[in-house]
Amino acid sequence: MPEAPKTTQKPTDYNLELKNKKILQFIEDLTSNADEVQNNVLEEILSSNAHVEYLKKHGLDGRTDRESFKNTMPVITYEDIQPYVERIANGDTSAILCSKPISEFLTSSGTSGGERKLMPTIEEELGRRSLLYSLLMPVMSQFVPGLDKGKGMYFLFIKSEAKTPGGLVARPVLTSYYKSNHFKDRPYDPYTNYTSPNETILCPDSYQSMYSQMLCGLCQHKEVLRVGAVFASGFIRAIKFLEKHWRLLCNDIRTGTIDSKITDPSVREAVMNILKADPKLADFVEAECSKDSWQGIITRLWPNTKYVDVIVTGTMSQYIPTLDYYSNGLPLVCTMYASSECYFGVNLNPLCKPSEVSYTLVPTMAYFEFLPIQRNNGVSNSISVPKTLNEKEQQELVDLVDVKLGQEYELVVTTYSGLFRYRVGDVLRVAGFKNKAPQFNFICRKNVVLSIDSDKTDEVELQHAVKNAVNHLLPFDATLAEYTSFADTTTIPGHYVLYWELSLNGNTPIHPSVFEDCCLTIEESLNSVYRQGRVCDKSIGPLEIKIVEPGTFDKLMDYAISLGASINQYKTPRCVKFAPIVELLNSRVISCYFSPKCPKWFPGHKQWSNTN
Ligand code: AMP
Q1: Span 159-172, mean pLDDT?
Q2: Does pTM surpass 0.85?
Q3: Is 332 in the pocket of ligand 1 (CB under 6 A)?
């Protein structure tokens, strides 16, 4: 995720070297004094919120020390604060969770009851997010010199927003950030010279936004020194877009005019400031794009690119081979770790291998605690974290500077905007330390079995969706004997695949349309983030059901046991990732069916539909 680009007016007194030095020193100071900083952060949060309803209810009584805080306040999940959140969403402006006015809701890609979680936020948090962004390029400049001499081609997008019944805006954190003055009216910074004009990023129509950003990126191809998007999936989607639309784009470059499908006047105007008729460039792009192989297309079209800036940690690691292919193995750089709840940390060694990426949590962002995690050993390698914590477990949380090398923890945050001891749901492993501050590998998001883009589907949601779908089989006297799933990212966009083994008792043949209905029912039953990805962003392809031969799941069990699984404890995995298992399943497929259309999706929560 790049930091906020800045305006183009270059002040005469701008001293890049000095600015970088100051920021690197700031990181040294923060990490050397991590515990003191954390103490101050907690004190500040608790004293400014001493009178909020939530803290009063739990009896904190204005105390601001760590011990009282830890002894008094429970460790919670979203469901614990949902009633408070709903009151705020419905227009209650009293100091419920935070003493400062709630400026908007950030809609997380984590869901509850099928809808995006709503994170209340306050105006000043934008400053904290900007601060984290401002650390990224000074860190990067230590490893790649000269990045101030050219541009970054980043594909950045806004998503749709809704209003809560009480009138607060609800939108994803990046939409909020890109629309803020922190992004739009940023001061000059040579590192944030981007190929995409603001207007192209802020265009709500995703086709026009992508088209115009790609066109501007191509026009300025020689100046581009780094390319990226927030997540790997988004960047790959941009390449795929180019694959589909390069002829139109070349035509625009040749003639110096913009395709008529780009109708947004502000986008057209912004692009026209960059686009000049350039038949030579059009020939060059055309020659590269019409070659059979797209291997290395990034380095071919943008020859001065030094790295690809995208998150490839967590579930995004599934895209590394595709990115390597398109970029001819350019470094893949993960710069930061953030969420709607809070921005967390930065990667201080950005040129390391994706498998070694670790994030240093920035101690000023929030007060961080860590819940130790025990692995259930065995084949499942599953992670066991209780949903609600008893008193003893609550006591086990440790502070930022007390985590142990190699140990895994669930991240718990106390933020300036009203989350107190809130379990984010991410599992992190301590990889090392920068001074006193720990550096964490991102291990996984708890319980998530399937993810293609920012969607996160857990086993319970999948089970519920499958249960709804199998109702279509009832008239045929067919039942689902076993199933599993796979996030297939060999297609662009990726899609969910379900492997179904059926028990057929009746003789009536099952028409393909019945299975297609099953696909659609599953999609309709999945959460709002999944459906938005299908409908709006087109970042997820149609769901596929693959019917496998009878006995396939027995074979799967045999295979797992041959790898060391215990016969007594064996359970069918509800999601598979291991390539030989996917191959085994694919080798026994009888027929495949795809969802025939997109599921329904509306902005905002379903219960707000009559207020928007
Ligand atoms: P959201 O609240 O929708 O912004 O999603 C935030 C979540 O995205 C985090 O809690 C993580 O699970 C995931 N995430 C964010 N940054 C990274 C990263 N650098 N690596 C892996 N996962 C990430």
Answers
A1: 97
A2: yes
A3: no
